[in-house]
Amino acid sequence: MSEDAAVSQWKEYPFWAVAKPKSVSNASAESLLSVYLDRGVIPYSEGGGLVHKPAESLEKYQLVEPGDLVLNNQQAWRGSLGVSTYRGIVSPAYRIFELNGEVVDTRFSHYLFRSRPYVEKIMLASLSVGDIQRQVKWPLLRVLLLRVPNISTQSKIAEYLDCETARIDGLIEKKTRFIALLKEKRIAVITHAVTKGIDAAVVMKPSGEDWLSDIPAHWTVVPPTALFTESKERAREGTQMLSATQKYGVIPLAEFERLEQRQVTMALVHLDKRKHVEVGDFVISMRSMDGGLERARAVGNVRSSYSVLKCGPHVEGRFYGYLLKSGLYIQALRLTSSFIRDGQDMNFSHFRKVKLPKLPVAEQAAIADHIDTQTARIDSLITKTDRSIALLREKRAALITAAVTGKIDMRHMA
Fold first, then answer.
1. Which domain of life is it from (predicted)?
2. What CATH class is the domain 220-358?
3. What is the mean pLDDT of the chain?
């Protein structure tokens, strides 16, 4: 029998013949479960807090048993569904179905319903709710057609996919760990260079500052005001609004919206009090306690509540750009200031409390060049590894689609 002939024997069933809606509540003692786009049904505790917090009362939460199909009612069209291997409870906003064991194998069903062709079918069974949500509608879902082989073949396909996806997942995990190591190395390269320099033979001395520890003997430690001055110049007419971001630095608001593909609502009050910023200035924003100070990439204006720092003659901006975003410096800010405990935003008065290293400008430039070179190499490796992970995920999805739609010949399998 040819492969096409084998697939022609697969039977077609409407969704209602394969999955029966169920809703059992008052099981609040059971463990919480969540449904994830990339993982299916997992314990809520393993989600890392990336989903909505559960309601105070769990009485209306629905019981899920191993083998049940669970759909996030508003996200199933994106693939947020799966067959559970756990017993527990989920939000009343989810839909739960008991699968017909005479028609479908539970492991096969998990792959089937999460495959691209069937996620697309579920999208067609969902109607728009607002601008970004779609809600599954039972009258449309119940008549969705599923084409499946006999139970024995389903089991073979599931075993094959278990093996192949485990192999791919193992490769993805290794590459993900490699990226984590590269990111750690990147941090270490920057931290060492901005606090110890790049001359391995240099004589060291105590800095007198806990956060710096030992520094090269020819460096000094000075108050920040010896290197930077605060600018309170008001915004100049006709200049663009800037956004102080931890991810991109201080860039035009329009560029930030383009990069993030979202629109930012700006308060159109006190525009006359906004502050002028030049390229190379540093900006202290309300999030600087989390990610350090940001360097301006464009001319424009920022919020009046932000502090703008002008670089003095002893400052090479790239060097201090790395230093003022280093983990050690951020920790020092947090330890010497009460603004976090008091719920205040960071400002210039907090910045001036942490002393900074001062070194020859030429050496600052050499260190910045070194960091630029080393981080560029690391970033290139991260990009390449990220790309290979994306290809593996694409291969995984394509493999599942091919298997559950009969594009892979399973007749050779025992």
1. Bacteria
2. alpha beta
3. 90
